[in-house]
Design goal:
alpha+beta, twelve-stranded antiparallel sheet, DNA Polymerase III, Chain A, domain 2, 25 strands, eight-stranded antiparallel sheet, single chain, 399 residues
């Protein structure tokens, strides 16, 4: 792929000729697979509920190679695609239909061209051709931030996938939940970072020490959607990912992909206040065995007709076992037993099956430690091998 990077992204986003109409003739050729892959990445930044028609489009800019850009005004994504450029220029094409058509093309080379007086772009691949209406490139909105004052981190190739697996699983999945659909990034100023996710029903966090220049403290809430999209970008082992944080934006810079997003405003609650500090029971067991038992129990629990008791599973902690049970009043009951090492007081705890299962699956690779608060108001789940990663589950109280 061609070079791009943070500086080219910033400069391209910073230019917006309000009210000025320009013509952008262009002609380029690229491999179908490269183009399809680039468009698929760019489409992640396009909302299904675009506020403006042009926001459903992808900006194609041909310079030294082909650069694709898309934005929904909250997140922007740039992808560099290798291409042979005969005539430099830029145009905005409707993202969804062009993406579907390019994916459906046979293998080979695709040519995209548009003349100075054309209102349509022509895509050809062998004997196949597609003419598609365009949007004016000068009306494509910028979305960016001056990153000169940003705090930047070098992230290992597997860091973002770990955040997606261990932390983002606990974040709210609905945009309407505000800051709870984001991940809190907290750094006192020396690179000792804690990333937190919560939808108010459960919480997960991960501690890490990252490379950065010592300086100001950071407390930012990054949309989990942007983190998850960044985690899906393929990164070669040993290659660092650059994360830059300003007061208003986050930028994830890869070799050929760059993702920028607006941060949520401050207002993330003090997560320390809900972490139990006193534990009455400690359990060690196989994460995989317990996850399997909870998953089976959940199959029956979801059939419960009572909304109050639907999707609930019970953990009966006693002796040397955890008995996992559930019921559906119109169908029957389920019970399974998982061997465990248990220290402290016995008891029965009720959980939402999905919330508990998602926490267990994140840590099911080996043995897990489960710490139960003295008041049974919460449990902390963590892998024996990864004590730096924790999942807090909140039991359901039934009157």
């Amino acid at each position: 792929m061609t070079g791009g990077g943070l500086s080219s992204w910033q400069s391209s986003l910073g230019v917006y000729h309000q009210g000025q109409k320009e013509e952008y003739p262009l002609r380029l050729t690229c491999e179908k697979q490269d183009l399809a892959s680039g468009i698929n990445l760019a489409l992640r930044a396009i909302s299904g509920r675009a506020l403006l028609p042009i926001l459903s489009g992808i900006l194609f800019e041909a310079e030294e190679g082909l650069c694709l850009r898309a934005t929904d005004l909250e997140m922007g994504l740039q992808v560099n695609v290798p291409a042979e450029v005969e005539v430099k220029g830029k145009v905005v094409l409707p993202g969804k239909i062009v993406g579907e058509m390019v994916r459906a093309l046979p293998g080979g080379r695709v040519t995209i061209q548009m003349g100075p007086e054309d209102s349509q772009a022509l895509l050809t691949c062998g004997d196949l051709s597609l003419k598609v209406n365009t949007y004016e490139a000068d009306q494509f909105p910028p979305m960016g931030s001056n990153l000169e004052e940003a705090v930047s981190y070098n992230l290992a190739a597997d860091f973002l996938p770990q955040i997606a697996k261990y932390v983002a699983v606990a974040a709210a999945r609905e945009d309407v939940r505000g800051v709870f659909s984001g991940l809190l990034w907290e750094d006192p100023g020396d690179g000792r970072v804690t990333v937190v996710g919560s939808d108010t029903y459960r919480m997960a966090w991960m501690h890490s020490t990252l490379e950065r220049e010592p300086g100001r403290a950071v407390r930012a809430v990054i949309p989990s959607r942007a983190v998850l999209d960044a985690a899906r970008v393929e990164v070669e082992e040993g290659t660092a990912v650059r994360l830059s944080l300003t007061e208003s934006h986050a930028a994830f810079a890869f070799s050929e992909v760059l993702i920028m997003c607006r941060l949520f405003g401050l207002g993330y609650p003090d997560y320390h206040a809900v972490i139990p500090v006193s534990f009455g029971t400690r359990i060690t067991c196989s994460g995989h065995q317990l996850a399997e038992a909870v998953e089976r129990a959940g199959l029956l629990a979801k059939e419960e007709e009572s909304k109050v008791r639907a999707n609930l599973v019970n953990l009966d902690i006693t002796g040397h076992t955890i008995r996992v049970s559930s019921q559906a009043s119109q169908l029957g009951t389920f019970s399974d037993t998982v061997p465990a090492r248990i220290e402290g007081q016995p008891g029965v705890i009720t959980f939402n099956a999905r919330y508990l299962l998602e926490g267990l699956k994140a840590h099911e690779g080996g043995d897990i430690d489960i710490e139960v608060a003295r008041s049974f108001e919460g449990v902390i789940i963590k892998s024996v091998e990864r004590p730096d990663v924790c999942y807090l589950g909140v039991p359901v109280r039934l009157e």
